[in-house]
Design goal:
single chain; transmembrane; rod-shaped; mainly alpha
C-alpha cells in the first residue's frame, strides 16, 4: 500500500507541476501580447 500511495503522490505532484507551468506560460503570453498592443497603440 505504501508503494501505491507513493505512486499516487508522485502522479499528483507531476500533474500539479505541469498545470503550474502551463498557467505561467499562458500568463507570459498574455503579458507579451498586452505589451505589444500597448506599444502598438502608443506608436
Amino acid at each position: 500500500m505504501a508503494m501505491v500511495a507513493m505512486m499516487v503522490v508522485v502522479v499528483v505532484v507531476a500533474i500539479a507541476v505541469i498545470i503550474a507551468i502551463v498557467v505561467i506560460m499562458i500568463a507570459v503570453v498574455i503579458v507579451i501580447v498586452a505589451a505589444a498592443a500597448a506599444t502598438g497603440n502608443g506608436a
